[in-house]
Write a structure and sequence with these properties.
The complex is a heterodimer of chains A (140) and B (129).
Chain A: H1 2-15, H2 19-24, E1 27-35, E2 40-44, E3 48-51, E4 54-59, E5 64-69, E6 76-84, H3 88-94, H4 98-110, E7 115-118, E8 122-125
Parallel strand pairs in A: 1-8
Antiparallel strand pairs in A: 1-4, 2-3, 2-5, 5-6, 6-7
Helix pairs in contact in A: 3-4
Chain B: H1 2-17, E1 24-29, E2 48-50, E3 60-69, H2 79-93, E4 97-102, E5 113-120
Parallel strand pairs in B: 2-4
Antiparallel strand pairs in B: 1-3, 3-5, 4-5
The chains are: A alpha+beta (140), B alpha+beta (129).
Chain lengths: 140, 129
């Protein structure tokens, strides 16, 4: 009976990839917004552009930088960071079956499914451009 | 039972095999800012580290940004090593100054950081960096 149960669990685990891959996939849909809306957002790396508000499908494993431009407002730059996804905790369950736990974790790592892009939504608050000095970086 | 015990004994070795000394290094070079020639020795490259909001930043231009962090199984990923890695990346990118921001990750024990890579008109050191 125990052997049968172990075989069933092993079969389920083996037929599914890492838990984070199953739950997350290797890409994440991130909402990109600006205040006010209607700005052109350029995403790096890649250089694709979109008009805010919009959703972008991005690789989880890569950090991104977004440039915002809107007539009458100062250009802004915002960053998407990548952190470890809580979904990776599910892989810990597979550590009950040791080789599968390690395999699932490695599987997720290869696909960057164990990452999460933050913040989501990414919101840029644009400052009105007032005069030549208006868009200089605010410093102490 | 004996087989199970032996299996458990092997577990730490398997786990160790998955750990790596490598760090995840990512660089985003902004358009119009070509990287330095690859033969530049990062050890000889002087890159100043400024605090966010430092007055000298007004005379600086962003040429890119970089991230250094956990691969998911990184070892030796403390602040010192990550900062040194960012310095090397900044040097290769052609920057003379960088501003570091820590990336908080509750599920990683590594120090992870994002750096603005800058070229400053006046060396930051002369501005009291």
């Amino acid at each position: 009976m125990r052997i049968a149960a172990a075989l069933v669990v092993a079969g389920i685990a083996a037929s599914s990839p890492g838990c984070a891959s199953w739950r997350n996939g290797s890409e994440q849909e991130v909402e990109i917004r600006s205040v006010p809306a209607g700005a052109t957002a350029t995403l790096l790396p890649g250089g694709s552009t979109l008009r805010t508000p919009a959703k972008a499908v991005l690789a989880r494993g890569h950090v991104h930088t977004v440039f915002f431009e809107l007539d009458g407002y100062c250009p802004e730059r915002a960053y998407l960071d990548r952190i470890t996804s809580p979904a990776i905790r599910l892989d810990a369950l597979l550590f009950l079956i040791p080789p599968l736990g390690l395999w699932a974790t490695e599987y997720d790592k290869e696909r960057d499914a164990h990452h999460q892009l933050v913040p989501d939504p990414l919101v840029a608050r644009l400052r009105p451009a007032t005069g030549e000095e208006g868009c200089r970086e605010a410093v102490d | 039972m004996v087989v199970a015990r032996r299996g458990l004994a092997v577990l730490p070795l398997l786990a160790l095999a998955c750990l790596s000394p490598e760090l995840d290094v990512q660089v985003i070079q902004y358009p119009g800012a070509p990287p330095r020639a690859s033969d530049v020795d990062p050890a000889l490259c002087d890159v100043d580290l400024l605090d966010p909001g430092h007055h000298a930043l007004a005379a600086c231009r962003d040429i890119g940004d970089a991230f250094v962090g956990d691969t998911g199984s990184s070892l030796d990923c403390g602040e010192e090593r990550v900062t040194e890695q960012l310095r090397r990346v900044a040097c290769r990118a052609g920057a003379d100054t960088m501003v570091i921001r820590r990336v908080e990750d509750p599920l990683s024990d590594c120090f992870q950081a994002r750096a603005r890579l800058l070229v400053c008109e006046t060396p930051a050191a002369e501005n009291g960096a």
